[in-house]
Amino acid sequence: MEEIGVLKGLVAREVDGLESSIWETSSAIHANPELGMKEYESSKLLCSELEKFGFDVKLGVGGLPTSFMATFDTGVEGPHICYLAEYDALPELGHACGHNIIGSTAVFSGVALSKIGGKLRGRITVLGTPDEEGSGGKIPLIKAGYFRDVDAAIMNHPMNFTAPWMPTVALGELTVKFTGKGAHYSTPHRGTNALDGVLLTLNCLNTLRHGFRNDVIFGYTVDRGGINPSVIPDVATARIAVKSTDVSNLRLVLATVHRCVKGIGSTVRAKVEVTDAPVYEESIPNLTLIEAVSNNFSQLGISFKSPDLMSRSMIYISTDYGNVSHVVPSVSPVVAISSAAVGLHTPEFARAAIDKKNRRTVANITKVMAMTGIDVLMNDRLLENAKKEFNRYAAAGFKDTPLSPVY
Ligand SMILES: [Zn+2]
Ligand SMILES: [Zn+2]
Fold first, then answer.
1. Ligand closest to CA 90
2. For residues 22 and 85, is the Cβ–Cβ distance under 8 A?
3. Whether pLDDT at 1 is above 60
4. Where are the CATH 3.40.630.10 domain residues in the chain?
5. Which residues of the chain does CATH 3.30.70.360 include?
6. DSSP designation for 268
7. What dotted CATH number matches 4-167+283-395?
8. 125 CA to middle of ligand 1, Å?
9. What is the average pLDDT across 309-337?
């Protein structure tokens, strides 16, 4: 075990040496915010850094042009860890979710480990996962098998507090389209009002709301509802986003929306189409890896919120990292780059993501991720426990995992 402590000291020193590269890379991504699936320059920059340090890099994997996979093999048989990089920005707001930091810290956690690779075993992958804010690039990468031989996945997210894990909830979004027939509004019986289909669907959901489990929330927009009140709308569309603390309950609600739309379509005699966006699953905690991250925070003298204070009822954000946590043991600490009053997706948070005051913090979270990587690569018992824990949850369909709310 002492050996592991020594290795952690060595990798932390490597991160110190890389501090300006970490900050410059993060700053360069911040300065050129690119939207999801269009992160051409950001992905190229991250890949070029990895190449510089001897990683075997493939840009554009799993059918996604701005994804990448970069691997460093120590040459000694051992576990395979995967750092998850994000680097997409938000329309108008730029890097108001701090993904510039996620991308850079993931890459340099891997690089720091590779620099002491001769003392390690196993493989280190940095996986570039585009479009977290949109379609969820991790989902096709999971489907394409990029996590099949991964033993543990590690990432971080900048936040307004520091904690070894953060609960996130399941999210589904669907687009509903009613197609009817246009007519003059003086002769509505000659047409089929598509907007009625949308209005009834939304009213139906609002009425059913009181019967949903109390963690269910939803929002909607009417994106197309006709062109003029004197014309019966022939096409009407709406988008509906639904959240629930777990994906099994979310799917029940989404099925209800489908039934509503179908029933209403036949009632108003309109054709209906429902398009489901990929579902973001809730984050599954891995207590073994959370403990490892907590110990590494403590070792660096970083104070953090205890995991059991992270109630799902307080934090209602969603991420495609949740889907990764359903396929491999994983951990995603959060790190404070702003005061508690500043929320994600605000201009203030975008400024915090480039604020020089956070340079040390960004280096520190890189250390925590690299040190946790050493735990996974070098501590057999820890990895075995993390896997046992994960397998237990998976066998139970991820129901009643720890730190979950009880309904
Ligand atoms: Zn975000
Ligand atoms: Zn984010």
1. 1
2. no
3. no
4. 4-167+283-395
5. 170-276
6. H
7. 3.40.630.10
8. 23
9. 91
Q: Distances in Å between the alpha carbon of 223 and those of 40, 66, 273?
A: 30, 29, 14
Whole-angstrom distance, CA of residue 156 vs CA of residue 368:
9
- Write down the pLDDT at residue 312: 63
CATH fold for domain 170-276: Alpha-Beta Plaits (3.30.70)
Q: How far is the CA of 67 from the centre of ligand 2 (A)?
A: 16
Residues, CB-to-ion distance under 5 Å, ligand 1: 97
**Tokens of residue 247, six digits:** 């994906």
Q: CB of 238 within 8 A of CB of 223?
A: yes
Q: Distance, CA 146 to ligand 2 centroid (Å)? A: 21
Ion ligand 2 neighbours (CB, 5 A) are 97
Strand 235-244, strand 170-179: pairing = antiparallel
Q: Give the tokens for residue 277.
A: 């966006």
How far does the centroid of ligand 2 lie from the alpha carbon of residue 39, in Å? 15
Question: Average model confidence (pLDDT) for the chain?
Answer: 96
For residue 207, the CA-to-ligand 2 centroid distance in Å is 32
